[in-house]
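Researcher: I'd like a candidate sequence for this fold, 627 residues long. If you have to choose between options at a position, lean toward the conservative one.
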């Protein structure tokens, strides 16, 4: 009877918790509906304000609103690149927009190629003789990459410019796994598929170190070239080589050191900055000190919805490639394939552009997408690929059907390799006195046996599967790029390349962005590129998910710290989250993957919406940041 009473109490507790969650969701949605503001307008003149309190991405992830509700924390804000570019392009020609303000105090960064695409739009505003003013308390690599293209770069008197470049340490788990008795069983092809090395080594192999150093050096050279071109008078090289000397020469004043080096144009607080903007855009009515006529980005986007009806279809493959269906921010094989096939069935588009910003993932998910793209080619549609910040491994797999591939100099691509990863918990179970036993009817019964370890027969079959997929992968690349298979194997083997190098290796055809790809697709479809209009093939969020996102996606709570030192100190948090992702890939990911786990993290950003609730909580606890 006690057992029944206890069980009944558990059921009542579960019921009460579910009712509480449903009530919170109901009243939250009701509040959101009642507080919906009228559609904003951008009547009048002013400065277009890009107050970026989050990360710049190719495709925003759908917020984990239930996780935010339970965890009490809002999702990080993600800004879609093409929204920023569209607003900046309009600012260049719209007479009501007198200036553009880049408020980067809480900018969380983005992929290097993603930011580079935004800077090109900033350059177009300046080419139209409109001022662009940037402000931040502190600049690190990503924020400064964007700010350097402004006509005036402002820095808070208590701020600093801290430029570190790509690189840094990552965690290696072999020692920990040995202590707890877990073996990582690895199957792979290629010397450079270093994604699995953290599970099998305590440091980098010489091959991985050489490849990672070459990639970092190439990305850093591209970054420095871009900044030097944007600010030719800045003494960038000296400041990067010896920042402590520059600071000492400025009497220990970090802001003055950046000013003396020509990295910034003005040092001033927000009120002074606001007065400067007001001189150009006009003073706000009923203004406080430093206020000016402002057109917020969200208001401009709401008043100027994206057009439709183009003839160049554009489908985005962003995030990890997974089997089945997935929300925006991850590329579900079935979801992307269905979007492409449904659009092809409508016979509306004359060409297809594939925009890739993905490290890969599932083999079968990647192949499902590739097959759908091939259907466009069977219908005689030109297919052009545009690579964003990341198009590696499975991201390159889905790019192989392209008639032409565009990439940015800082695109991370290649990683033509395959690996498999399975845990063996026998040692850990033995440590706590647990044993296993069983029977077999065939050599594969109960395989893969994660409790006792895989059998030699299974290992041979698994490695044969890895070898077969690698042969298929290299064959696809050889056929697509018109290269000998031996040459693809030479430049493949899992090695990662920068876009500027990939052109020389013939993995990429041309340097260029999404606009170049759309124009090329139009030419191949015999459409005047000047008249070509894109039709974005995507699934929009439901009304309910938008309401929930509005409730929990708080800009203020998700903001990055404004000073440069604190931003740099958040790197350990990113590395801890990466470690969770690595372990999740081992424990729950596909057994065979075409994924670039070794690719650099694209942004110094808070955890994305795709980060698990427990991962975020444990990470913050371990780093002493509280929950």
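Model: Candidate sequence:
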């Amino acid at each position: 009877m006690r057992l029944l009473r206890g069980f009944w109490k558990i059921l009542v507790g579960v019921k009460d918790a579910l009712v509480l969650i449903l009530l919170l969701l109901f009243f939250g949605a009701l509040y959101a509906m009642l507080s919906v503001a009228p559609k904003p307008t951008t009547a009048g003149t002013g400065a277009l304000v890009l107050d970026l309190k989050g990360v710049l991405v190719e495709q925003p992830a759908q917020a984990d609103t239930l996780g935010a509700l339970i965890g009490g924390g809002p999702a990080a804000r993600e800004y879609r690149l093409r929204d920023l570019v569209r607003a900046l392009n309009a600012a260049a020609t719209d007479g009501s927009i007198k200036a553009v303000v880049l408020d980067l105090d809480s900018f969380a960064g983005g992929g290097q190629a993603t930011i580079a695409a935004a800077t090109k739009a900033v350059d177009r505003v300046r080419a139209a003789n409109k001022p662009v003013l940037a402000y931040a308390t502190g600049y690190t690599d990503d924020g400064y990459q964007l700010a350097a293209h402004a006509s005036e770069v402002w820095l808070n008197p208590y701020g600093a410019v801290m430029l570190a470049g790509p690189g840094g340490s990552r965690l290696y788990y072999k020692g920990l796994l040995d202590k707890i008795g877990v073996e990582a069983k690895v199957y792979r092809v290629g010397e450079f598929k270093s994604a699995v090395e953290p599970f099998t080594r305590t440091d980098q192999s010489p091959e991985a170190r050489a490849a990672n150093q070459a990639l970092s050096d190439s990305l850093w050279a591209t970054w420095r070239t871009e900044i030097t071109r944007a600010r030719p008078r800045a003494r960038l090289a000296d400041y990067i080589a010896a920042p402590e000397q520059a600071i000492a020469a400025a009497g220990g004043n970090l802001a003055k050191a950046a000013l003396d080096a020509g990295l910034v144009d003005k040092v001033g607080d927000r009120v002074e900055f606001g007065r400067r903007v007001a001189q150009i855009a006009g003073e706000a009515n009923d203004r406080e000190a430093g206020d000016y006529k402002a057109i917020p980005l969200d208001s401009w986007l709401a008043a100027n919805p994206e057009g439709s009806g183009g003839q160049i279809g554009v489908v985005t493959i962003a995030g990890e490639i997974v089997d089945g269906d997935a929300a925006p921010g991850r590329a579900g094989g079935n979801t992307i394939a269905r979007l492409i096939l449904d659009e092809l069935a409508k016979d509306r588009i004359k060409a297809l552009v594939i925009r890739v910003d993905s490290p890969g993932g599932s083999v079968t998910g990647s192949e499902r997408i590739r097959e759908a793209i091939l259907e466009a080619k069977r219908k005689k549609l030109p297919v052009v690929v545009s690579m964003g910040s990341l198009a590696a491994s499975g991201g390159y797999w889905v790019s192989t059907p392209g008639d032409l591939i565009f990439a940015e100099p800082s695109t991370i691509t290649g990683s033509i390799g395959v690996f498999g990863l399975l845990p063996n918990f026998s040692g850990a179970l033995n440590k706590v006195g647990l044993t296993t036993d069983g029977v077999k009817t065939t050599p594969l019964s109960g395989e893969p046996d994660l409790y006792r370890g895989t059998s030699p027969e299974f290992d041979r079959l698994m490695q044969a599967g890895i070898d077969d997929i690698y042969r298929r992968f290299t064959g696809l690349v050889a056929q697509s790029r018109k290269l000998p298979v031996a040459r693809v194997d030479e430049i493949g083997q899992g090695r990662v390349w920068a876009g500027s190098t990939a052109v020389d290796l013939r993995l990429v055809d041309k340097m260029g962005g999404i606009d170049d790809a759309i124009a090329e697709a139009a030419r191949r479809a015999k459409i005047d590129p000047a008249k070509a209009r894109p039709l974005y093939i995507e699934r929009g969020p439901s009304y309910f998910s938008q309401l929930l996102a509005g409730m929990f996606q708080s800009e203020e709570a998700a903001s990055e710290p404004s000073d440069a030192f604190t931003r740099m100190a958040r790197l350990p948090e990113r590395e801890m989250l990466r470690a969770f992702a690595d372990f999740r890939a081992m424990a729950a990911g596909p057994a065979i993957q075409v994924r670039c786990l070794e690719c650099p993290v694209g942004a110094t950003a808070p955890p994305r919406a795709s980060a698990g609730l427990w991962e975020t909580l444990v990470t913050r606890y371990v780093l002493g940041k509280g929950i």
